Amino acid sequence: MPAPAFSAAVAGEIVSGIAGPGKAACYDDLVEVSEPLATSPDPAVYAPAARWWEFGALRHRDFRILWLGMLLSSSTIMFQWFTIGRLIENYFPQALGESFPILLMLGIAGLTRGLGMFTFSMIGGALADRHDRRLLAIANQSAGICVAITFSLLIALDWIELWHVFVLLFAAAATQTFDLPARQALIAQVVEPQDLTNATALFAAAAQTSFALSPLFAGYFVDTLGLAGTYAASIIGYAALLIALLVMRPAGKPAEHPHQGMLEQMRTGIRHAMNDRAILGILAVSFTTSAIAMSVIINLSPYWILRVLDVSPTTWGLLAAIWGTGAVMTSYFLSSRGSFRNKGRMFLGSALAFSVLFVLWGLTRSPLWFSVVQFFMAACIAANFISATAMIQELTPDGVRGRVLSLFGLNQAIAMIFGVAVGAIAEAAGATVAVPIMGVVLVAAVVTLAAASPGLRHVH
Question: In whole angstroms, what is the distance from residue 210 CA to residue 69 CA?
Answer without folding.
Answer: 12
